[in-house]
Amino acid sequence: MCQAKIVNVGVDTLVLNAFYLDERGKPCKCEIDPTLRSQLDEWKRAAQEVHEESPTTLMFNGAVLHMSPNGAGQGQWPWMLKTKDITLYISGGHWNGIAAVRFSSQYLWSCQGILDAMMSGQTFLDDLFKQEVYLQVSSVDLCVDVAGWEDVERLDRIQNFISRSRKRMVRDESEWVDEVKSREYSVGFQRTGYDFSRGKHGSSSLSCRMYDKSREIKQSGKEWFLDLWHTHGWSEEDGCVWRVEFSFKREVLHELQQENMSHEVMFWGIEDAYELPERLPVLWAYATGQVDSGSDGVPDGWLRCVLPNGDKNRSRWPTHPVWQLIQAAFIDPMEVPPQFGKIVRKRWEEHNIDKGIEAVMGYLTSLAAWAGGELAEDGVDLSVVLHWLAMRGDAYLERVKRDFSVEVQRKRLKFGLQSA
Which residues pair with 389 in a beta bridge? Predict the structure, then answer.
């Protein structure tokens, strides 16, 4: 009997493209307003003068966007602005899109749903460009967190994973027969993850990552996932949690098609961002396979975890029982608890404080070692080092003409923290 259980389901990464609309309400190519262009250039010059991100007057979710000294995308995006919640790329309008916005994982999980995040982005971009913009899905990562997957570390990425080249939800599969590339990762003798990707000339229009999320959290500091798992029935006794995550790029999103039992096309491609929330189950089934197999009764899905049974036709091998749980995860997705954003923010702040203390203590012990004298005596107290640092630190700030309080407020602005 399978003891594994799903402890989290959702969207971990989302990138939206923004377009101007023509008089018919259709996306169109158009250069950005000259006044906005001039303001963006001014902010960018300010950032280049100080060689670091510089604050602007733009705000998202209560945090000030900071302009980067450099753009992105080999000139496609001359202006790049950031907060802890989003990264905003703006084009001059020579390309089809005028902007792209990437929502951080932290922000997405703090929202009640993906629609809330998109609507916040819509409001912000409409205000920035002084008109309603069209939002298109550029890329999206869907994930499922699984606890109690006992044999996951013993799976063979070649033997236990198969990809079906012919998918029933795509109109033309001739372009999608590329060999699936895979890798595995280990720490010592312990398996920690797998990668699977497909694409032409090194690009990956569709890819999958499977990895030990419990181990990754210790490095990334995203402890709020522990709180989320707990609300969905996880406990430490369930052991480590593995994540299965699929990344969909524009090529796949554009070609995606679903047919009904009569082979009539129900929809073709995901373009409008507001179609995405209701299409998540279809995207997930496209990647992992349908719970009840394909329309021909043979298991489908781009990637499937199987159990070998000796049949020469690998497509008929039975689906791993845990993968069956994974396949059904988006049929009835889990909700984020109310006010979970406060927990995410608290965990994020605690993590950064801990990392800051760790860094400061490392620097202080090094300073004491270099300074020598009473600071390096056996049994020296931390307060002695801090007293010495206060005097030397004040002298340094006076020499470089900087004010400690002003620097603190500047950093709070940069980190998206409310003023004290």
Answer: none
CB 90 within 8 A of CB 81: yes
Rounded Cα–Cα distance for residues 107 and 348 (Å): 11
| Domain annotation covers residue 199 | yes
Q: What is the domain range of residue 51?
A: 30-95+99-132
Query: pLDDT tens digit string along 54-83?
Result: 999 999 999 999 999 998 877 889 999 999
Under DSSP, is residue 114 helix (H, G, I), strand (E, B) or coil?
helix
Are residues 80 and 102 in contact, defined by beta-carbon separation less than 8 angstroms? no
Dihedral of alpha carbons 15, 254, 283, 150, sign: negative
Q: How many domains in the chain?
A: 3
Among 332, 344, 352, 336, CA closest to 415: 352
3-state DSSP assignment of residue 135: strand
* Averaged confidence pLDDT in the chain: 85
Last residue of a domain, which of 338, 370, 396? Answer: 338
| φ, ψ at 201 (rounded to 5°) | 55, 40
Beta-sheet pairing, 206-212 with 27-28: unpaired
User: Are 332 and 382 contained in the same domain?
Assistant: no
Q: Which of residues 107 and 166 earns the better pLDDT score?
A: 107
Q: Which of 79, 110, 132 is the last residue of a domain?
A: 132
Kindly state whether residues 325 and 351 are assigned to the same domain. no
Residues 236 and 314 in one domain: yes
For residue 22, give the nearest of 101, 131, 118 by alpha carbon. Answer: 131
Lowest mean pLDDT across 81-85, 150-154, 179-183: 179-183
Give the pLDDT mean for 305-330: 90
CA gap 140, 137 in Å, rounded: 7
Q: Buried b vs exposed e over 72-81: b needs ≥16 C-beta within 10 Å?
A: eeeeebbbbb
pLDDT, residue 174, reads 31
Which residue's structure tokens are 């460009």?
A: 129
